[in-house]
Each structure stands twice: as structure tokens, then as C-alpha cells.
Amino acid sequence: MEKEDFMCHASTFLLPLLEKENNTSTSEFVTKYALIILNQPLPTFTPMLWDHAQVRVCADGGANRLYHEMPPLLPHQHSELIQTRFVPDAIKGDMDSIQTEVLDFYKKLGTKIIDESQDQDTTDLHKCITYILNLTPDVDKSKLCILVVGALGGRFDHEVGNINVLCSFSGTRIILLSDDCLIHLLPKNQHHKIFIQSSVEGPHCGLIPIGMPCRSSTTTGLKWDLDNTEMKFGGLVSTSNIVKGDIVTVQSDSDLLWTISFKKL
Ligand SMILES: Nc1ncnc2c1ncn2[C@@H]1O[C@H](COP(=O)(O)OP(=O)(O)OP(=O)(O)O)[C@@H](O)[C@H]1O
Ligand SMILES: Cc1ncc(C[n+]2csc(CCO)c2C)c(N)n1
Predict the structure, then answer these.
(1) Least trusted range by pLDDT, from 26-30, 146-150, 176-180
(2) What UniProt keywords apply to this chain's record, in alphabetical order (predicted)?
(3) Is the pTM value of this prediction over 0.90?
(4) Whole-angstrom Cα distance, residue 258 to residue 195?
(5) Which of 39, 64, 66 to mutate to test the pocket of ligand 1 (most atoms within 8 A of CB)?
(6) What ipTM was assigned to the predicted interfaces of this complex?
(7) By CB neighbour count within 10 A (0-12 exposed, 13-18 middle, 19+ buried), where does 31 fall?
(8) Is residue 46 a contact partner of residue 70, using CB atoms and an 8 Å limit?
């Protein structure tokens, strides 16, 4: 099978940004990252994701996290300096969690504030994804990848809401991250090739049917591979699986969630 026939996935955003990559980031072949910060403890690698991203958005109370938790992640620099260096492009949400002092601070520094408190039917994450997709509506989104920090752990209804956003925007690459793992969607009826960044991720992984049972999934590169296997809640769901090497391939007749653990450094 030709390379072009695969949908490829690689968590290179977990590796430090090289000057060289930065200089070629306008190339049409390079993934363009956007970062969304939710209202949960910031993962320790957030400064690195910030450097990879070209657009940074806080979801409501996520702005409090950026303001208060970014300085302790970079202890060798003054807090005030960090707070003025890491300024989001926008803060969007229903604005019931952001602190007034934080809102005023970023507003003065030019952050766009978008209050959508009238919409109580979509989550702040959903609102932020819409904002990013509308920034350049006519541009091809296949090279865009939206990284979402603070999406996992904490309140279960929020976690499920965040996973539901993956399903609502299944045509957009969105990756939910915590300090422990990442999750993204593998859309159905495609050949997926996942390049494992083994210095920072693995070996624990999972493949989870989402929304409906899958009748047939086939994988390579896992300790417990699937071979035309059915998966459903109440039956088999591939949790606590292990990646064997640097490439995993997946094919399925329904959307699956892919999750992989992060190595503790
Ligand atoms: N404990 C959590 N676990 C996972 N995601 C979270 C958690 N808390 C917040 N989030 C995410 O961060 C976003 C912004 O959080 P914030 O606390 O501002 O939301 P909210 O709209 O006030 O939530 P709610 O009104 O349900 O408490 C949420 O929409 C959600 O996506
Ligand atoms: C059936 C149903 N369940 C829950 C909510 C509440 N809700 C869902 S998203 C959201 C915004 C959170 O920032 C709120 C309050 C609703 N509207 N409809």
C-alpha cells in the first residue's frame, strides 16, 4: 500500500521545537498546531506545546490556569515576565470561571475576549474549537491539529463532554491531553498509521469504540492485536494494550478512540 493511502499520526509536539522546524513552519507540508487551555491543572509540558502552537486560546477558567500555573512550570524566570510572555490570542467561554484580575490582565495585553454566556448548550471547549475553525474558514484544515490541555481527569461529566467534542468535530484533528496520556479519534474506514514517539509515549495504549459497537477492527504493532475483531461496551474493549514497536496500524469500520500513556521523565 502507498504511503498516501494512510492517515498518519505522530505526537511530535511532545518533542522540543527545533529552530529548523520553526523556520519551515509556513510550509504547506508542516502541521499547524493550535493550543486550547482548559480549566484543569496544566500539564508540565504545556510551555513546549505553547511554542509549537501558532494560535493559543483559553476556555474561560483555563485563563486562570495559564496565569497562575505557567510561572511555577518555568521556575528560573520571574513570574511577571512569564505572565506577559504567555498571552493567549483569545479567551472564549461562558465566563463564569475566569477571575476578574486575570480577565483584566489579558484584556490590557490585547487578548480577544469572547463572552458567549448566552449559549448554555455547548461546552467552552466546543466554543473554542469553533473559534479556531472560523479563524481561516476557507483554508484546508487537513494540516491543522488542535491540542487541548487539561481535558482529562477531574470531573467525569467534563471528560465525557470533552470526548464528545472529538465526535462532534470528527473531521478535525483534535488531541486531548493530560499529564498522563493523550486521546484522539481514528475516523472509520481509513488506514491509520501511528508513529510512536517512544522516548516520550507508550507502552500502554487502548482502542475504544465510541458511539456504537465496531463490527471489525484490525491492527498491527500491538501486543494484543485485533484481527477482524468486534469491539463493544459489554463485550471486548481494548484497554491495557501494549505497543510493541514504533509503528501501529489500525483499520476499523467505526470510529475508535486511540489512547496512549506518557512516560514519566
Ligand atoms: N474537571 C475537569 N475535567 C475535565 N475538563 C474540565 C474540568 N474542568 C473544566 N474542564 C474543561 O474546561 C472548560 C472550561 O472550564 P470551566 O470551569 O470554565 O467550565 P464551566 O463552563 O464553568 O463548567 P461548569 O459550569 O460545568 O462547572 C470546560 O468546558 C471543560 O471542557
Ligand atoms: C440536556 C442538557 N444538559 C445539560 C445542559 C447544560 N450545559 C451543557 S453545556 C453547558 C455550558 C457549560 O459551559 C451547560 C450549562 C444543557 N444545556 N442541556
Answers:
(1) 26-30
(2) ATP-binding, Kinase, Nucleotide-binding, Transferase
(3) yes
(4) 13
(5) 39
(6) 0.87
(7) middle
(8) yes
